[in-house]
């Protein structure tokens, strides 16, 4: 091979360029530009690719929203302070107090300890950074002394310090919730009692002129549901919020917008459920060592006589006495006190405790209203600990007007993850903290995109990742990260606790006279729906809703 | 002065290698330019090995993350342009090597490291970032790769 050998570093310092050198210069200039067409090729490639992607985005109609989800606005530092009474300081009451920014010094120490052991555990930091809601806890009530005293300490821990920190003024502890409701220095109450007390306490609070945040389910008996609604409606100046914090989940609001625009096509079936597989998840809560007949006011625990009568009337008339008890209501029992959810005598079972979460989420997204009928089945299949409420429950609700069936399927003895699915003729939406929409192969709405290959059938067509302001068709990688929770802290560097947001909404409404997202009407729908499911299970037959008479009927 | 002689084929091969690496960087940059809200967050959070906490801290600080995003988006694009055109090639080479070194250090193919982002091959200690890093070093050390470049024109004329 006889190649022309060439020197690269040929910068010669001749003073006058010869003709040969001039032509050499031209050749060098041309040569320098040899790679410029490469940029043209790149530009062409990028143009083609972008065009294909924009077609894809056009198809992804659902990624565009009319409105952005309401942004978080911190409470005003000079907002009027609301004085709060907390009724019930058990598991949920403690969490609600934390949502308000109050925890016992021991709890704060625990958080500090956890963050020391595991620097990735940011719960302490999150709690300290949680915005001040401008509330004061002036009154607490719990019928177990230890809880009552803990509530006092939590309410006084205004600086969120550990043991030995400076406490603020202690809230007054009341032995009876009615005494708390009579206190003039209470503007609003947070009720986190067992289910059999929910309706009664909420009604007494409204009668006492207090705003109410009530834990779900709204009621224990059917008759009190109407009574509470009537009372709340006749006191519109008092803000009533039912504790379904799912109302604050941004993804649900997005889901609602997608569905309202008909992007799933005609929806025929909704599948929800609960899977848990540990004693705590099955309500076998620990029994406190200090609990005994002296430290617990059993008489108050038993319940309100009117409610008990309503309960017994129904159980007797429907031939369901085998579900009452088995122990007598008067008999002191630590199991029944701490694990009350296991007995109908105090509880609403899976229906009131967990179905209500699923139903309210779907009612929020699909505006379902009260079902036209409910059928249930199940039983006590795993936790043979003397409970009367089932640990496996399937309830099927028919929404006749909307032509939608909602299935609720639960077991407390398996925790396989089943996503909530909203199934439409054109697509299926899976609802969690992220949203996934998968196009149906038989879709008519998306026929063209399917044929063009724009929509791939084997992967979600649209994924909503919280915190992204623009919902582009996300990449597999992004989805991968989101599903593992890695993207959440990306939202704004701060993750909000939904209970905090739900309480905040209630307080905002008290201050500016607006209606909260889970008010009395949503609560009424939730309670009636749950009662229909419960009655269908207990009676072993389908329950119907007479819309005109607003009554649960058997035919 | 020692003069080094290259065959035409050698020069073309080095030129093509430079343009291809440039293309790779340029498109990596442009792809990010055209991705709305592109962020290095996930990639940084997925870092393993000795420097994982450093990269995670970068990701968690919004101001730093913004800088990292900007540097990646525009840095890759500019480095790509430099290598394709052969303009300020040495700066381009150094930039490319810094990027590759950081990518290598943030995702070292360690014995037991598992990344969320699945890699397209199987690696142990040596991965494509490292190989590319050394390739760029070789290009930089063999000036013949600049035979066909704006640099050769620019620096000739300026004299």
Largest interface: A-B, 40 and 45 residues
CATH structural class of the largest domain in chain A: Alpha Beta
CATH homologous superfamily name of the largest domain in chain A?
Dihydrodipicolinate Reductase, domain 2
The count of DSSP E runs of length 2 or more, i.e. the number of strands of chain A, is 17
Main pleated-sheet profile of chain B: none
**How far apart are the termini of chain A?**
99 Å
What structural category arises from helix and sheet content of chain A?
alpha/beta
Distance between the termini of chain B: 19 Å
Give a short summary of the structure:
Chain A has helices at residues 19-32, 36-59, 91-100, 105-117, 123-129, 145-156, 177-182, 195-207, 222-233, 250-260, 298-302, 305-317, 334-338, 349-366, 447-452, 476-483, 498-512, 520-539; strands at 6-7, 82-87, 135-141, 172-174, 188-191, 211-214, 240-242, 267-275, 373-379, 392-399, 404-411, 420-424, 427-431, 435-439, 462-464, 543-546, 551-553. Chain A is an alpha/beta fold and 555 residues long.
Task: Note down, in words, how this protein is organized.
The complex is a heterodimer of chains A (555) and B (159). Chain A has 18 helices and 17 strands. By secondary structure, chain A is an alpha/beta fold. In chain A, the strands form two sheets. In chain A, strands 15-14-13-12-8-11-10-9-16-17 form a ten-stranded mixed sheet. Chain A is globular, with a radius of gyration of 31 Å. Chain B is mainly alpha-helical and 159 residues long. Classes of the chains: A alpha/beta (555), B mainly alpha (159). The A-B interface holds A 1, 3-9, 11, 13, 25, 28-29, 31-36, 38-39, 42, 45-46, 50, 53, 468-470, 472, 477-478, 480-481, 484, 486-487, 489-490, 493 and B 1, 3-9, 11, 15, 19, 22-23, 26-27, 30, 34-37, 39, 41-42, 45-46, 60, 62, 81, 84-86, 116-117, 143-144, 146-150, 152-153, 155-156, 159.
Task: Break the fold down into its secondary structure elements and pairings.
The complex is a heterodimer of chains A (555) and B (159).
Chain A: E1 6-7, H1 19-32, H2 36-59, E2 82-87, H3 91-100, H4 105-117, H5 123-129, E3 135-141, H6 145-156, E4 172-174, H7 177-182, E5 188-191, H8 195-207, E6 211-214, H9 222-233, E7 240-242, H10 250-260, E8 267-275, H11 298-302, H12 305-317, H13 334-338, H14 349-366, E9 373-379, E10 392-399, E11 404-411, E12 420-424, E13 427-431, E14 435-439, H15 447-452, E15 462-464, H16 476-483, H17 498-512, H18 520-539, E16 543-546, E17 551-553
Parallel strand pairs in A: 2-3, 2-5, 3-4, 5-6, 6-7, 8-11
Antiparallel strand pairs in A: 8-12, 9-10, 9-16, 10-11, 12-13, 13-14, 14-15, 16-17
Helix pairs in contact in A: 3-17, 8-9, 9-18, 10-14, 14-18
Chain B: E1 5-6, H1 8-33, H2 41-45, H3 52-60, H4 62-85, H5 89-106, H6 128-141, H7 150-157
Helix pairs in contact in B: 1-4, 4-5, 5-6
């Amino acid at each position: 091979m006889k190649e022309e050998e060439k020197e690269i570093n040929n910068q010669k310092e001749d003073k006058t360029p010869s003709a040969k050198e001039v032509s050499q210069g031209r050749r060098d200039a041309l040569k320098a530009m040899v790679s410029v067409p490469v940029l043209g090729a790149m530009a062409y490639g990028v143009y083609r690719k972008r065009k294909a992607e924009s077609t894809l985005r056009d198809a992804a109609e659902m990624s565009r929203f009319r409105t952005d989800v309401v942004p978080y606005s911190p409470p005003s530092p000079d907002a009027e302070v609301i004085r709060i009474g907390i009724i019930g300081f058990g598991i949920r009451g403690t969490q609600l107090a934390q949502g308000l920014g109050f925890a016992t010094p021991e709890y704060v120490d625990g958080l500090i300890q956890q963050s020391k052991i595991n620097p990735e555990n940011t719960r302490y930091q999150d709690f300290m950074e949680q915005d001040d809601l401008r509330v004061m806890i002036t009154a607490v009530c719990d019928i177990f002394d230890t809880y009552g005293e803990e509530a006092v300490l939590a309410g006084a821990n205004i600086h969120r310090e550990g043991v030995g920190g400076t406490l603020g003024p202690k809230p007054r502890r009341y032995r009876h919730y009615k005494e708390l409701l009579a206190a003039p220095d209470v503007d609003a109450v947070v009720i986190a009692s067992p289910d059999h007390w929910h309706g009664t306490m909420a009604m007494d609070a409204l009668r006492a002129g207090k705003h109410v945040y009530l834990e779900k389910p709204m009621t224990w008996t059917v008759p009190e549901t109407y009574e509470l609604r009537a009372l709340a409606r006749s006191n519109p100046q008092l803000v009533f919020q039912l504790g379904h914090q799912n109302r604050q989940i941004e993804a649900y609001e997005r889901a609602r917008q997608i569905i309202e625009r008909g992007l799933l096509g005609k929806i025929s079936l909704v599948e929800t459920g609960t899977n848990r597989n540990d004693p705590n998840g099955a309500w076998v809560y620990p029994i406190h060592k200090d609990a005994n007949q002296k430290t617990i006011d059993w008489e108050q625990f038993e319940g309100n006589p009117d409610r008990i009568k309503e309960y017994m009337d129904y159980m007797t008339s429907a031939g369901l006495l085998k579900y009452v008890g088995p122990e007598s209501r008067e008999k002191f029992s630590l199991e029944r006190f701490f694990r009350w959810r296991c007995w109908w005598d105090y509880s609403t079972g899976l229906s009131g405790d967990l179905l209500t979460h699923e139903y309210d989420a779907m009612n929020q997204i699909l505006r379902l209203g009260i079902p036209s009928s409910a059928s249930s089945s199940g039983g006590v299949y795993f936790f043979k600990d003397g409970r009367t409420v089932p640990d496996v429950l399937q309830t099927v609700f028919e929404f006749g007007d909307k032509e939608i069936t909602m299935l609720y399927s639960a077991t407390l003895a398996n925790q396989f993850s089943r996503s909530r699915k909203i199934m439409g003729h054109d697509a299926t939406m899976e609802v969690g903290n992220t949203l996934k929409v998968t196009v149906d192969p038989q879709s008519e709405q998306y026929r063209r995109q399917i044929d063009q290959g724009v929509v791939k059938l084997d992967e979600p067509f649209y994924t909503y990742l919280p915190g992204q302001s623009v919902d582009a068709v996300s990449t597999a990688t992004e989805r991968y990260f989101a599903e593992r929770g890695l993207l959440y802290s990306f939202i704004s560097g701060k993750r909000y606790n939904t209970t905090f947001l739900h309480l905040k909404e209630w307080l905002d409404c008290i201050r500016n006279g607006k209606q909260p997202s889970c008010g009395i009407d949503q609560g009424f729908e939730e309670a009636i729906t749950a009662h229909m499911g419960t009655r269908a299970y207990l009676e072993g037959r389908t329950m119907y809703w007479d819309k005109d008479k607003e009554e649960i009927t058997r035919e | 002065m020692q003069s080094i002689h290259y065959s035409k084929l050698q020069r073309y091969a080095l030129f093509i290698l430079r343009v291809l690496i440039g293309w790779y960087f340029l498109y990596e940059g442009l792809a990010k330019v055209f991705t709305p809200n592109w962020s290095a967050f996930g990639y940084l959070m997925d870092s393993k090995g000795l420097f994982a906490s450093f990269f995670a801290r970068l990701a968690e600080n919004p101001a730093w993350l913004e800088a990292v995003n900007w540097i990646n988006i525009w840095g890759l694009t500019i480095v790509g342009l430099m290598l394709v055109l052969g303009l300020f090639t040495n700066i381009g080479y150094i930039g490319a090597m810094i990027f590759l070194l950081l990518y290598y250090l943030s995702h070292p193919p360690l014995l037991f490291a598992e990344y969320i982002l699945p890699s397209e091959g199987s690696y142990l200690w040596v991965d494509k970032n490292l190989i590319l890093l050394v390739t760029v070093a070789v290009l930089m050390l063999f000036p013949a790769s600049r035979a066909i470049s704006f640099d050769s024109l620019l620096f000739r004329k300026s004299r």
